[in-house]
Design a protein that fits this description.
The chain is of the alpha/beta class. The chain has one domain: P-loop containing nucleotide triphosphate hydrolases (Rossmann fold), CATH 3.40.50. The protein is built from ten helices and five strands; from the N terminus they run H-E-H-E-H-H-H-E-H-E-H-H-H-E-H. A five-stranded parallel sheet has the order 2-3-1-4-5, sandwiched between helices. Helix 2 packs across helix 10 (196-212), helix 3 packs across helix 4 (61-71) and helix 5 (78-89) packs parallel to helix 6. The protein is globular. The termini are close together. The relative contact order is 0.20. Bound molecules: adenosine-5'-diphosphate.
Length: 213
């Protein structure tokens, strides 16, 4: 403990290679916190939502395939996601680790993540941080995002009924991963309510403890 800043070199030194998985409902603040962790630890943030939205915007074959699924608030099939994530994690900038924001989201994705990491060829220690945010708060935040963005900046999947569908999908398919990772002993729950700084400090303390452990 002690020092407030851990240099990127501390992360890459020796054999400690870190995969940090952020879990939590839509609107929990995973993206914001992932970006901050990425800046502090010098490992890339991999946001599958952002990657898919970029593919849709660029009308790539992947984008064409996932557009309707995303607009409906449903999940892209596991085999498609596995390919997307494996490609991304195989890039050289992920050699020291990565922060996964939005992946895994299903039991199938979680079960194939460890083998994927081994295929890429590095032994990594992983850490799963679950952002705990009550459902009412999540709905409030997403509605706030809607108002702030106005019509022009609105995400196609931020419509009210789609938000509710995304929450339903989260509860049904993604939330069970909390238990999956709890059983593996690699999961820490983080109180996801408070200021962005407060939440970051909680996450950061856990990451530092993990790196030192
Ligand atoms: P949220 O704001 O709900 O956290 P994201 O920006 O992470 O959402 O993702 C937006 C959409 O992209 C999801 O609703 C889903 O359709 C698709 N998506 C993102 N990550 C995954 C994944 N790991 N598996 C399946 N679909 C995904």
């Amino acid at each position: 403990m002690g020092g407030s800043k851990v240099a990127a070199t501390d992360v890459v030194a020796g054999s400690t290679i870190v995969l940090i998985v952020l879990l939590g409902p839509p609107g929990a603040g995973k993206g914001t916190q992932a970006a901050r962790l990425s800046a502090k630890y010098g490992i890339p943030q991999i946001s599958t939502g952002d990657m898919l939205r970029a593919a849709v915007a660029a009308t790539t074959p992947l984008g064409e395939r996932v557009k309707g699924i995303m607009e409906a608030g449903e999940l892209v099939p596991d085999d498609v996601m596995l390919e997307v994530v494996e490609d991304r994690l195989s890039q050289p900038d992920c050699a020291s680790g990565a922060i996964l924001d939005g992946y895994p989201r299903t039991a199938g994705q979680a079960e194939t993540l460890d083998p994927l990491v081994w295929r890429i060829g590095q032994g990594r220690s992983s850490l799963v941080l679950v952002l705990d945010v009550p459902e009412e708060e999540v709905i409030r935040r997403i509605s706030g995002r809607l108002e702030e963005a106005g019509e022009a900046g609105k995400r196609d999947d931020d419509e009210d009924h789609v938000v509710l569908e995304r929450l339903r999908v989260y509860r049904e398919l993604t939330e069970p991963l909390v238990e999956f990772y709890r059983d593996k002993g690699v999961m820490t729950e983080i109180v996801g309510v408070g200021t962005v700084d407060e939440i970051f400090d909680r996450m950061d303390a856990t990451v530092r403890e993990h790196l030192q452990g």
